[in-house]
Amino acid sequence: MPILIERYRRWLDVPSDLTAYSIGEGNTPLVHWQTWGATRVWLKLEGSNPTGSFKDRGMTVAVSIARHSMARAVICASTGNTAASAAAYAGRAGLPAFVVMPEGQVAPPKMVQAAAHGARLIVVRGNFDQALSGVRTVAANESWIALVNSVNPWRIRGQETAAYEIVDALGTVPMMLVLPVGNAGNISAYFQGFHRYAGRAPEFLGVQAKGSDPLVQNRPLDHVATIASAIRIGRPASADSAKTAVKESHGQFLSVDDTAILAAQKELAHGGIFVEPASAAAYAGLLQRQSLQTLPSGDIVVILTGAGLKDTDTPLQWASIASTLSPADGILSTITTLLEEMAG
Ligand SMILES: *Cc1c(COP(=O)(O)O)cnc(C)c1O
Fold first, then answer.
1. CB burial of residue 316 (10 Å; 0-12, 13-18, 19+)
2. I need a labelling partner for 283 at 20 to 30 A (CA). Which of 105, 145, 258, 291 fits?
3. Can you tell me which atom of ligand 1 is nearest the CA of 278?
């Protein structure tokens, strides 16, 4: 399989002499999850990207372009996954990466990932929106540093490829697309991507977390709280294009609470698919929408944006790790006890 940029080069409009830096992004599984009446539910496993989130699709393009335009470093603000992805691609392209993270707001595995790839982590007191505003100012004043947040249009172009893959896999545009919405770059990318590749877009269900739902409330929020740290954003940079995507596709924004997110995470994981809380929010949103209104017949695709191992604390709220065996007990007697617990 050719690398993502080569596969979709003519749709991406990248410079013809661009050197593409790849670590094997894209081409992620589209898994048939369940059929509910006349509705087929598919899951797009974006956590199968090399750094564990969809950010890689945009980052391969943004970092390759940064290199092509002679940038000497890349910078981003991040709730974690952008940082991990920027760090990996910058490493691949031989560029230093500076990642700015809100203190106490990033799941530790994502920080570990970014640091392991050699990025320099800068932790700021404040929230993601403040961190983003800070890096935007730096990048605007320092032309040698390329900003690789989703406000960089090349990020969005790269992320369009997920829409292309869905059309290629289903042979058509699905009826509905369900995805979590944080800074709102990804929903904008899917909208643009479906239009460019297939001439029309599915109905969008943009899911936010209660406590961090500026698009549902239709106003920016300065204080945000949710277990789903990847979408803990009060001032989405791409709010306008997200609203356009929802409006033009006759879709909607809705919000789900942390309890629903955890229940969805558990249901998916027990069905073999382990995703981080922000991704589980999308599935929780679909369940909520189903309880309120009949779903369209045909294909619905839920975008599971990031892998479960990205956030190892959250699942401990519903999963138990080990049963400690005392020397006197046998393994079989422990299994018997566990089976009784499960039945009760
Ligand atoms: C970045 C991210 C989101 C939100 O995407 P936006 O483009 O900011 O709306 C959702 N889920 C995960 C796992 C992410 O990393």
1. exposed
2. 105
3. 11
For ligand 1, atom 15: residue with the closest CA? 81
> Which ligand 1 atom is the nearest neighbour of the CA of 46?
13
Is the CB of residue 231 below 6 angstroms from any atom belonging to ligand 1? yes
Ligand 1 pocket, residue 276 CB under 6 Å = yes
What are the tens digits of pLDDT across the range 266-290? 999 999 999 999 999 999 999 999 9
CA atoms of 186 and 49, how far apart (whole Å): 15
Quote the ligand 1 centre to 342 CA distance (angstroms): 35
Å from CA of 233 to ligand 1 middle: 10
In short, whether 230's Cβ falls inside 6 Å of ligand 1 is yes
User: What is the band of 334 on the pLDDT scale with cuts at 50, 70, 90?
Assistant: confident
Domain 55-153 has CATH 3.40.50.1100: yes
Instruction: In whole angstroms, give the CA distance from residue 45 to residue 58.
Output: 16
What's the 307 CA to ligand 1 centre distance in angstroms?
A: 12
Domains 4-54+158-317 and 55-153 are alike in CATH topology: yes
Q: Where are the domains of the chain?
A: 4-54+158-317, 55-153
Give me the CATH code for the 4-54+158-317 domain, please.
3.40.50.1100
Using a cut of 0.85, tell me whether the model's pTM lies above it. yes
Order of strands across the sheet that contains 73-77: 120-124, 97-102, 73-77, 145-147
